[in-house]
Amino acid sequence: MTSGREMATPEILSIDTETVTANPDAPALRRALTAAAKHPSVVAAALWLLLVGLASVFSSQLAPYDPLAQNVMDSYALPSLHHLLGTDQLGRDLLSRLIFGGRGILLGCCETVAIALTIGVPLGLVAGYRGGWIDSVLAFVVNVLFSIPGFVLLIAVAFITADSLPAIMGALGVLASATILRLVRSSALAVRSQGFVDYARIAGVPLPLLLTRHILRNTLGTLVVQVFYLFSLAFVIAASLSFLALGFNPATPSWGQMVFDATQNIYLHSWLMVPVGVILTATVLAFQTIGNVIRESLPQANRDSLLAGKSGPIAVAEPWDQAARLERSGRGSAPAPAVPEISDDVLLRVDGLCVSFPRQDGSRYNVVDGVDLTVRRGEMLGVVGESGSGKTMSALALLDLVPRPGVISARRFEVAGHNVLTLQPKERARLRGRVVSYVSQEPMVALDPCFTIGATLSEPLRVIRGLGRKAAHAEALDLLRRVGIARPEMVARSYPHQLSGGMAQRVAIALALVSQPELLIADEPTTALDVTIQAEILDLLRELQSDTGMTVVLVTHDLGVVADACSHVAVMYAGQIVEYGAASDILTKPSHPYTTSLMAAVPTAGAQGGRLQTITGSVPSPQSWPVGCRFANRCPVAIDECSAAPVSLQVEEARARRCIREPTVARLARDVAHVVRSPE
Amino acid sequence: MLRVIRNRLLQAIPTLLVVATLTFLLIQLVPGNPANFMLGPGATLAQVHYIDKQLGLNLPIYTQYWNWLSGVLGGHLGTSYVGHTSVGVTLDHAVPATMSLAVLATVFALVVGFTGGIIAALRGGIVDRLIRFTASLGLGVPNFWLAVLLVYVFAVKLALLPATGYTSFTQSPKAWILGLILPVLALTVNNTAQIMFQARNSVLEVLSRDFVRTLQATGLSRRRIILRHIVRNAAIPVITVAGFVFVVTLGGVVVIELIFNILGIGQVFLTAVNEHDVPTVQGAILYFTLAVVLVNLGVDLIVAWIDPRTRVR
Question: Which of A14, A258, A360, A553 has the fewest beta carbons under 10 Å from its own?
């Protein structure tokens, strides 16, 4: 998922640097290859290649005629039962010539690929893994190979070796090894820095084994793709050479030579073009198709687009999922909304917010399932939960920026007086930045790497706030100063990759402030940062909030952050809010077992030397939410009733909770919580 | 940026030197004596020695190399064994045709392929599938076969465009472009398809990056984000591939020039190969290499200009 989030390698070594930096585990690769192998176009392509291959191996057995047998009386025959594909200018059977004509070309391709791999893989591994002078020398060699006009060189080789096809295709293999070398090198480089390689080395795994087992495996997917592309390239080149009558004996038929024959007769006997054209095109297509499909099934290739569609996810009044709808109607008896009725000081109000994604079969499932939120102006609301609780999706839904193919729905959705449900997609898009703004989790990738900080900040200042170039620049510097950057001129001239994480997050916050939003949504803004920086960024948010009266929704998994910064808190679990209230209230007297367990899992300095508590198990996946309380299977105080029916959000004064047990019982959860360590 | 330009130039020079040397050594591997080839089978030993001496082939190889290299550095590529004309002059005459072909084919591929790739990635669905299917076909068709087909349809059947020949731009811009349409089309179809696939993948990759979300959240319009940010980021690998594509096109030029009877470097080269005209073969390879090195340099500089992260070295 997070491939390419690391800083790009300083020099672009290969087009595929991006994809090889990922570290797909072997089973994922196998799954991808299996999935690709089942793809209908791959099956067709593979069958075609098999056919062509077999025809070339068993040509003498398969060909109906001797490919060289001439019969001038029967030249230029069109397809007939006698000659299924007709005959050429000398009356030779075209089908037989086609069956014989691929052998040399295909053998040549295999030679090229074999040589490219034999040279490129080991040298690439060594260059990437060892680095140093070996790497520099090989980098220069690769540079030279890339500077050689390949086809021209091959013709020269044909010239020197008196048309030796093995020599020509071997030379192509040497040239092509540069591509393989680069590819393997960059993935070896990417893998080298990862912990498991160090570990294997310390564990005494011999170097060759380490290189092949651990590093090669990580690049295998991309390498397989490259091999198919290389086959296709070698095929086209071999066919072109045979067209030029280089490297192929004129006495034996070959596909390129057949095209040449056809060109000589194009004016009168154009049929000659057709069979050989189909064969050539289909074969190249087969190699390319297999390469493309595998490339697209590789785990690192499938990432969702973050660009909202033109129409955007559509907000409709009713939730998508039938089950969810039933559940909510079951909840109809629940008392008044969680928080007081809408009034002037309410900035954000959503009821029944759902985000749904399609299943394989076209039906939809919710990942956010009926969230009600009311945020007053100047409030700082913390949304807390484990990963998978739907808190980030809820935050993105507030911006109408749920990744495709997600769809947002709500019964009520109002921001700063705008009824979002009635707005056109374009109008909804206009709320972004101007009314609702966003700070993301990973500052290092949140900024466009191609622009300086100054340019990044100036763009919306000029486009949205209509400032002139100079005014925008001055305002950008001012914003940088406001987010606590001491030397704004220098930072404005820098590119994102030149900043530290904390600095980049300050810039990202400045960017969020550009259009003077009323609501700032900060999605785990401190998670990716060092602990000391975390506190600084949190202070900054609090400061900005108290200075400008801006409203903030702070998504976090860290209750400490909530305690530090938030006035209110909403605890989310499995797509729902399970507890809501004033932060001081909830944190001192949690009344939902999940909140209690979360609090028990926060390491505190004052705790009396016990083991750190963790919540056993993990959040159920959205596709398998139980009917009843979704926390029941992990809840230390659950009873049978909990799992029987959906639990509604009960509102008591300024608080709300989704639990049927007494608050006092729920609070016990802390004491009986399991003390099993589990990651997250 | 100036520093980057200087560094890349300094890198290009040794590459060019090494390739030039390799070319020289490679040609030394040609079996048989050029004198024998020039004189035919009936030549006497004395005649061969005379020719050898005239061409300097009797000198030690390092002297030959030095003579050749100093000649090249001074701009003298030698005299053709066959026509006894200056190789440099012959090649310089052939350059405009070849460059017209290769540059137009690459520019067309870049413009059409990049646009197609962007549309395919952004629209998705049926548009995406249609574009990809067309591109797949384009990828599969061998250029020499396509060239013949194009001649058959547009020159023979429809008689819309000339089947062969090249008119220089200075002579008649109209005839120049009309004569180039078919050969460029034949050359560019593979390239366009290849760039299309790369562009589509790059755009999809860029779309999944976090900054796309950040930019949307600042309130910039979708159109602006696509044109200014997504296209720019996606262009980085596309430009690199366009460089490869140009190199491959230079190879295709050799075949296409033959089919369309265009007197470019490719034709000069092929003829020289068939006639064992060593100085011309060497000169032509050098010209091709120079083109590749210049394009690689250009690609590096454009990428460095677009992507600040690559300016480090």
Answer: A360
